[in-house]
Amino acid sequence: MANYNVYLVGVGGQGILTIADMIMRAAQELNVPANYYPTKGMAQRGGFVKAQLKLGAETVGPDIRPLGADLGIAMELSESLKAIRYIKPGGTLVVYGYKWQPTAVMLGKAPYPTREDVEKAAADAQLKLVFLDPADQPEDTADNIYLLAATMRHSGLGDVVSEEAITDAIKARWPKGAERNMRSFEAGLAVE
């Protein structure tokens, strides 16, 4: 199996580390070698959070280097710009268009990027961009599981870990909340 690297970014409280954990669990179920590097840092609400997954690599190695990821997953619009430099040309960036303004933006010291800014940066980096507008998401669905499913549909991640292995991981992690999370996953799979 070829190596497949995933670089995930978001802000604390969104569930970006949970997405990485679900992918990791699915990979383990399928006996796909997997290395998981979470960076919690300011993981309270609003602080930068990232995770790195190396799938298919037999040995543990250093962090994913710039242009070393096949896939980027971003749960916040401005944070998606941090992921772009890590994704190789021809790779995929999946962005959930949630907006969380950092302190500098709230104080008027920096502009908040627009969707067009992200689209241009992704095009300049020669990436396939999949943008999920939160307004299009069905009610009572979990953002992170919805994003994970859409990512499975629109990237090569589904060639590495199966939908079935992801759903098994969801059911194992949340036996009491499986119904809502499965509904979220099914909604994400339906994203065009």
Your description of this structure?
- The protein has 192 residues and is of the alpha/beta class.
- It has a single domain, classed as 3-Layer(aba) Sandwich (Pyruvate-ferredoxin Oxidoreductase, domain 3).
- 39% of the residues lie in helices and 22% in strands.
- It has helices at 16-29, 77-84, 103-106, 115-124, 143-154, 157-160, 163-173, 178-189, and strands at 4-11, 34-39, 48-55, 69-74, 87-96, 128-132.
- Strands 2-3-1-4-5-6 form a six-stranded mixed beta sheet, sandwiched between helices.
- Helix 1 crosses helix 7 (163-173), helix 5 (143-154) packs parallel to helix 8 (178-189) and helix 7 (163-173) runs antiparallel to helix 8 (178-189).
- The longest helix is centred in the N-terminal third of the chain and has 14 residues, at 16-29.
- It starts with a strand and ends with a helix.
Low-pLDDT stretches are none
What is the CATH architecture descriptor? 3-Layer(aba) Sandwich
Q: How does the overall form come out from the CA principal axes?
A: globular
Number of helices: 8
Q: For the residues shown, what is the average pLDDT?
A: 91
- The fraction of residues in strands falls at 15-25%
Main sheet, how many strands, which sense, barrel? 6 strands, mixed
CATH superfamily assignment?
Answer: Pyruvate-ferredoxin oxidoreductase, PFOR, domain III
Give the % helix. Answer: 25-40%
Number of domains: 1
Q: State the separation between the terminal residues, measured CA to CA.
A: 28 Å
Level-1 CATH class name: Alpha Beta
